[in-house]
């Protein structure tokens, strides 16, 4: 799933390619992906892409008076094409969910394909006049790289979360926007903290975690800077120290990276760095093994 660093890089890539382009047409191929009905895709025709921004993990293309907002979910992605494919896939078949076709003054075409792999479809598209009309955007907590996200703000979030496990707190978008499963693993590894640590922690641990959030996300953004959309997934994996690396060696201490598996996800951690050398029980209600 694309998280804050990848969406930030996608925004930069699309700003370079799409801003100033005129929309020729917006084709919705997976009709279930479009979650709004008040504004139709035809409303974008003839308008110009004025800006590309993000809200947490939501990507926002401002086109004239409207916003095309995408949440790429687990398996969604975007692909820029300098030429529009001649073959037209039938709606509802294949990974193509939507296509935004552009044409410049000289008649040269390009397009942005929004795709989703697999059979479990979670990608969501919204056509709105105001991003706050999207429920997921309206509920977002503070952005962890916004200057307003001070340590005091973070400490308040932790205190309010109480005994909730810190792994889940980092992933809750209404508390902190943009961090998902992968970067929460990386942040906790950088902070040398168990994923099951209660959120209400002492100031020393809270400051260490706050610093790890900023450092991990900033480093990931810097690595991805200038990478085209086609290379971002590869770049994301190459920078991971524990996430997705079960059975490999921790680059910090040399211990073996371990995993806890849930019904629809998994998390990775280093026992030596994070749990005092004790493996976590691999079940949904995991606790430190005695």
UniProtKB/TrEMBL annotation:
One of its GO terms (molecular function) is DNA-(apurinic or apyrimidinic site) endonuclease activity. CDD domains: BaFpgNei_N_1. It comes from the Bacteria. Its cofactor is Zn(2+). It holds the Pfam family Fapy_DNA_glyco. It catalyses: Hydrolysis of DNA containing ring-opened 7-methylguanine residues, releasing 2,6-diamino-4-hydroxy-5-(N-methyl)formamidopyrimidine. The keyword Ligase does not apply. Residues 241-275 form the FPG-type domain. Signal peptide: none annotated. Keywords: DNA damage, DNA repair, DNA-binding, Glycosidase, Hydrolase, Lyase, Metal-binding, Multifunctional enzyme, Zinc, Zinc-finger. Residues 2-76 form the Formamidopyrimidine-DNA glycosylase catalytic domain. GO terms for biological process: base-excision repair. PANTHER family: FORMAMIDOPYRIMIDINE-DNA GLYCOSYLASE (PTHR22993:SF9). Belongs to the FPG family. This is Fpg/Nei family DNA glycosylase.
């Amino acid at each position: 799933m694309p998280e804050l660093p990848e969406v930030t890089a996608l925004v930069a890539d699309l700003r370079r390619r799409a801003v100033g382009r005129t929309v020729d047409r917006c084709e919705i191929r997976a009709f279930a992906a479009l979650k709004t009905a008040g504004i139709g895709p035809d409303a974008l025709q003839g308008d110009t892409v004025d800006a590309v921004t993000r809200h947490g993990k939501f990507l926002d293309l401002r086109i004239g008076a409207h916003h095309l907002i995408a949440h790429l979910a687990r398996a969604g992605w975007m692909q820029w094409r300098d030429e529009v494919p001649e073959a037209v896939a039938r709606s509802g078949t294949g990974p193509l969910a939507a296509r935004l076709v552009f044409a410049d003054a000289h008649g040269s075409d390009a397009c942005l394909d929004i795709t989703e792999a697999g059979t479990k479809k979670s990608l969501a598209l919204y056509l709105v006049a105001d991003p706050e009309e999207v429920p997921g955007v309206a509920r977002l907590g503070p952005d962890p790289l916004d200057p307003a996200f001070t340590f005091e703000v973070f400490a308040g979030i932790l205190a309010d979360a109480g005994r909730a496990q810190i792994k889940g707190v980092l992933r809750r978008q209404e508390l902190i926007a943009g961090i998902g499963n992968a970067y929460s693993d990386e942040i906790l590894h950088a902070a040398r903290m168990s994923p099951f640590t209660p959120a209400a922690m002492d100031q020393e641990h809270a400051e260490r975690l706050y610093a790890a959030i900023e450092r991990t996300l900033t480093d990931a953004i810097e690595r991805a800077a200038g990478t085209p959309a086609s290379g971002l997934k590869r770049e994301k994996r190459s920078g991971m120290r524990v996430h997705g690396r079960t059975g490999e060696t921790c680059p910090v201490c040399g211990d073996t990276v371990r995993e806890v598996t849930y019904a629809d996800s998994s998390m990775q951690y280093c026992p030596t760095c994070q749990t005092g050398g004790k493996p976590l029980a691999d079940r949904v209600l995991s606790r430190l093994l005695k």
